[in-house]
Amino acid sequence: MPLTDTAIKNAKPQNKPYKITDEKSMYLLVNTNGSKYFRLKYRFAGKEKLLPIGVYPDTSLKMAREDRDNARTLLAKGIDPMLDRKIKKIANTENCFKAIALEWYGKHLASKSENYKNRVINMLERDLFPWLGDRVISEIKPSELLIALRRIESRSIQTAHKALQTCGQIFRYAVATDRAELDITPSLKGALSPINGGHFAAITEPLEAAKLLRAIDNYSGSFVVKSALQLAHLVFVRPSELYNAEWEHISLETKEWRYLVTKTNTQHIVPLSTQAIEILTNLYPLTGKGRFVFPNERTPNGSRAISDMALLVALRSMGFSKEVMTIHGFRAMARTMIEERLKIEYKFFEHQLAHAVRDANGRAYNRTTHLDDRHNMMQTWADYLDSLKAGAVIIPFGKSA
Length: 401
Hints:
By secondary structure, the chain is α+β, with helices and mostly antiparallel strands. It has three domains: 5-78, Double Stranded RNA Binding Domain, CATH 3.30.160; 91-198, DNA polymerase, domain 1 (Orthogonal Bundle); 206-390, Intergrase catalytic core (hpI Integrase, Chain A, Orthogonal Bundle), CATH 1.10.443.10. It contains 15 helices and seven strands. It has helices at 5-10, 61-76, 81-90, 97-108, 114-132, 142-153, 157-176, 206-217, 223-235, 239-243, 274-287, 308-317, 329-342, 346-352, 371-390; strands at residues 18-21, 26-30, 36-44, 47-56, 250-251, 256-261, 266-271. The strands form two sheets. Strands 1-2-3-4 form a four-stranded antiparallel β-sheet. Strand 6 and strand 7 (266-271) form a beta hairpin. Helix 4 crosses helix 7, helix 6 packs antiparallel against helix 7 (157-176) and helix 8 crosses helix 15. It is globular. The N and C termini lie far apart (75 Å).
């Protein structure tokens, strides 16, 4: 039955929150403290989402239904009402930095993956909008932008460089749309610390790798963080892909993780070793009801992925500085040690790293190429790491004693 004003007024709090449904996927959430919230359940890009509509009585039933219908109209046009609301809320004036940044975001990132778009919008909202968002973009000076970038640099040099690159695209868009005279970002070239020569610190020596692996197994912090670190060296995907891993993409039966590579926007398959399956199986009772394999601990419902800092903080707490090991370094560790210690064919691990690997005719291999060989490689790699932790002497793969 549809909601009525009388039913809403008479809804009393109970021992736990409960819902009263309305038409077209909207409902009223009644909390234990008596507060009443209108919510709209919807699906976008295959994902179930909840749109907050308003708080009763400030938002009447009539107003809530109008907002619901507007949201459904956006969905019919292929627009996520949650993102549309976020953009409209942030964009105050036509010529301010955040309005132009969000306009650029909407036009130029439409074809990018959801994970990539989320990283960009989160970086803008967290690191740039609080200080530059309300400024008219043509009045922003290089020194002001540098101050904002320095704040990011103190946390992550890599993220600071990515932010500068993103700002360059936003400023060039402002120039193209006649809202700025020039792109100020080239004047900041060399102002940020270099990203360690373009490489990420990584442990690649077996004895040091064994110490790292044992330290991770003995980590006494968050079980989610520990599980993410344990899986990182077994799958060696890009950090953002690890953080944003979703349960719906993982099959414990076929032992495969299939997802879209954010950097190349292509499908990728990660074979899962027995050890990786054990980690995921142990984690599933804790996070399996949510969207993300490794959810942010501040959102118990699992609606947000773990932050990029959580794993870094854990590594530092175990005594591994940024000059010794990074999260991205797990990829370099796997690539180097698989090639040097296990003697596995180059094309197998390059393909597993989701790099562009081509055949003799220059054609790119598809995602299923060498899948059986890659399954074997991932299991061999996981067994090798177990042997390192146990202190065994390993004979390179393909060699005899």
